[in-house]
Amino acid sequence: MKFGFDIDDTLINLRQHAFVLYNKKLQKNIPLESFYALKTVEIHEPFGLDATEGKQLWDSLREEIYFTNCPPFPSAVEILCELVNHGHEIYYITARKKQFAEKTKEWMKKIGFPIIDERFYCGMEDHEKISIIQELELDYYFDDKPAVLETLTDYSTQLYVKDHPYNQHLALNRIKDWKELRQLY
To answer: Which helix (H) or strand (E) holds 23?
Structure first.
């Protein structure tokens, strides 16, 4: 079978990692409970930033957010390695900017994700993921963003949402713990 995965906030805990960095950079001590209560993908509001200021901060810290010690979600690396060991194909489809493609791929390999270069797609906008997912004829696709998943509901690909407070309105299969994926293979 063919499995497709978004990276940020699907396989790795990027937003929480960024939240911790925001606290450090802004010399704040906003508790993680504020992060867990967020109903949006954006994380700037608890820091008193508007959307423009939040985007500017994210952009200024992007490389540090992406390539420092951002942890994978528990069992994500292990489960994807198991999928490969069972003969399944793994595809990564991320909207990270193209300039970060090679560095992202190498960083993910370093932390243990099983990556075949030809199955790593990076550098498109969220809405452009749809054509890639369709062209690959994926059996399963996993993402966290409602805007991406909602555009795929009419296709034969089985969709799963990585559970977060901001995507609770989606009536899709959910992954809360990556070990739950074992029931598919």
So the answer is: helix 14-25
